[in-house]
Each structure stands twice: as C-alpha cells, then as structure tokens.
Amino acid sequence: MGFQHFSTCFLLALCILSQGLAKGAHGFACNWGTRLTHPLPPQITVKLMRDNGFRQVKLFEADPDALKALGNSGIQVMVGIPNDLLANLAASVDAAIAWVNQNVSSYISKNGVDIRYVAVGNEAFLKTYNGRFVNSTFPAIQNIQAALIKAGLGRQVKVTTPLNADVYQSDSGLPSGGNFRPDIHGQMMSIIKFLSQNGGPLTFNIYPFLSLDADPHFPKEFAFFDGSAAPVVDGSITYTNVFDANYDTLITALEKNGFGQMPVIIGEVGWPTDGTANANIKNAQRFNQGLIDRIVKRQGSPKRPTPPDIYLFGFLDEDAKSIEPGPFERHWGVFNFDGSIKYPLNLGGGKQLVAARGVRYLPKQWCVMSTQANVQDPTAFGDSMSKACTYADCTPLSPGGSCSGLDIRGNASYAFNMYFQTMNQRKEACNFNGLSVITNINPSPPQSACQFKIMIDLGKHEKKSTSPSDAPKIQLNLMVMLLSSFIFVMLLLYV
C-alpha cells in the first residue's frame, strides 16, 4: 500500500514537472524563402535553424530540397501553396488529392517530415490583387481539406490560409472598431467557419515596418515594442505599439462575428535591413529583439494574453525575390544569404545567435570599375549599369540603402561586382565596355554597412544544388529577378 502510494505520488510529481518543463520551454518559428541565386545548402540551413532554437518553419512552396532536409529534424513544417495554383485546386478535388499525395503524404512517409499545416495561398485577398484570387481561395481550402482526409492526415495536418492584415479594418481607427472588409466579408466568414469546424487556425501577416515606411507621418516609436510614442487609448485599454493594436483589431473583428476563440497564427512579422532609409540594421535589431523578448516571455496582447505562434520573416535574405513592393523585399532575413549574422540577438537564457558552419565561397576576388575608366561616356556607363543591375541585386544602391552614399565610381563597382558574383565569377562576367577590372583587394568601404559580397560556391556543396532537376527553380528565380530588377535599374538611372 505504501509503495503504491509512493508510486502514485512519484508519477503525479513527474507529470507536473514535465508539464512545467513543457510550458517553460520555447522555440522560435521562421519563414524560409528560396528565391536566391546562390542558396545556402538546405542541410546547412536546417542545422542553422536547429542551432538557433527554431522549431517551426513555413515554406512558401513545397520545395523538394527543403522538405527533404527537414526530414527527421524535429522541426514542424507549414507547407505553402502558391496563389497561381489556387484556380486549379479549386476546380478539381482530384488535383488537390494529387497535390497532397506528392507534397505532403510522400514527405511524411518517405522522409519523416513533420508537416503540421498546409497554407493554401499567400495573402490571396490582398487589395492590390484586385480580387483575382477571391473566388478560388475557399474552394481550394475545401478541396485540400478533403484531400488530407482521404490521405488519412485530417487530424495530423491542418489547413490554414495566410492573409494580409488588410483583410480587416477599423472605421474608428481604434482596435475596438475592427471588422473585416465589406467586399470580402462573406468569403471571410465562409473560410473562418470552415477552418473552425476542421480545427484549422487563421494565419495573418502583420508588418509594422510597412506601416512606418508607407506613411511619412506615422509615429516611428509606435512601430517598436520599446517605443516612447504617445500611447493609443481605446476605452480601458492602452496600446504602446502598433503590433498589439493591429492584432487586437483582428481579435475584435473575430469577436464581432462570433469567432472570439478562433486560434490565430502570426505567419509573418519582421523588419528588413536594407533598401530604404527605415530598413537598416539598427531598426531591425531593435524590432526583432523586442519581438523575440515577447516570444520568450510568452507575452500576448491586451485582448488575448495567450500569445499566438509567431513566424519571423524571414530567415535568410533572398537576392532573387521580386522587389515590386520595394527594394527592401530582398533584405528581410535575420541572417544574411549565407547564414552569417547580421546583428546580435539575445534568444533568452543567455543564448545568442550563431552563424552557419561549413559554408564555402567563391575565391576572394571582386569586379570593380577600373581607375582608368572614363565615366563621362554616358552610353557605355549607362549600358553597363543597366546590364549589371538587371541581372543582379543592386537594391543596396537605392535611396536610403546601405550603399546609397557611394560616388559614381562606387556605384558602378558595386553593380559590376554583384553581376560578377551572380555569374559565378566567370572571367567574361567582368567585361563592361572596358570599364571594369578584377581585383583581389576588398573594395568594401571601411567601417560601413555597405559590403561588396562574395557568393557561395555552389560547386563545392551538394551536387543537387546545381543538378538538372533544379534548373526550373533556378530559371524561375532568375526570371523573377530579371523582371523586378529591370524596373529597379530604370529608376536608379533616371531618378
């Protein structure tokens, strides 16, 4: 009897202890974008996540290399479905079944990937899409849910859809006035009700940076968690930062429509480090440290003290990403493209960020403008800059960017080098109408945020990084870069 009593007490104590440890433990979540000309090898990327305590990741598409690397990693995965697939998935449940079989079931069974969510679309109701995806999003969600159930994954894998914060608004300008946009209210109610019935969360992207960058009159301090801006008072609640105010506007919208307990995930939130004046190391470190402190302390908002899962955007910089929203789009990473540290972050418990290991680079050489080059030849100079910045990332040269203070020769050297590196340092890639030369001396300005990069040597990593099967993905990344960079270089040359 005494032994049984002891055993029962011991087991009870063990359960309480384990629950306490589970509650006390925390991990981070991030977005892993793959729009890079020289991607960090997936195995190194996954190890970098694990080394820094990231236990959840969101992929914007079912990237085979990324998913394989995440197998048996202990990292929970949200797999995204791009918007251009929505119409097909909405029109055919068979197409949804095929997608789930290929991109979810196979990776779970064959590779041991811990897929927890399928994110159907990405900000499909964004105002700038002019309703293009409004009618296909909900049917696609329904068909993917049916496909997961058919695959026997209905309990294990939940459906969600990441939405931009512009799907809700407040006529009063205060969180208490929150409601969903009238033009999509019906679709939102259908989606929310369906997700609620099937145990799926809502996912929303909130960007204080965009609020600040888009409005010159926005109170800067209100964008940060430690800001000193005048607080916003909404009845009995006081808001000291725009993130809480934005999030609680959403919670109010859910409450007004009868879904006050609906689970919510923050799918994207972060701060870029380059491309505009507000996108810099100092601001990014300040914002992300404040965000991480909240995650570590498990701090929620005034209306929802229990915090949501928060996915930092993003994990790595993406030099081939579209810059249609702005030059800053390629610089959201907490880490540089190669997994090196941009700025220190305290991850809690005395733990600091650690950099990627095992990264191999191209030789230490740069392509720069020759000291004998004549910058007065407008045709040769203009054509050379256009060529370089159409095919490579010149966004640090944009107004307010980290390299915007360079003179005309510095601008040319930066552009020439980015093209040279993007083209894997091929000798002929440093041929700009006789204006350029290869050097072994690092041309980066001393004590400056402007850095002349050297790219990752893809040939020294896994062969699959440059295998024929990756050709379509590489080609797509280059096409995205080509289109957006062409617009950027026109602005750079004529503004």
UniProtKB/TrEMBL annotation:
Tell me the compartments it is located in: Cell membrane
GO MF annotations for this entry? glucan endo-1,3-beta-D-glucosidase activity
Q: Which residues form the X8 domain?
A: 365-452
Q: Where is the signal peptide?
A: 1-22
Key word Transport present in the record? no
Indicate the transmembrane segments per the record: 474-494
What is the designated name of this protein? glucan endo-1,3-beta-D-glucosidase
The lineage is: Eukaryota, Viridiplantae, Streptophyta, Embryophyta, Tracheophyta
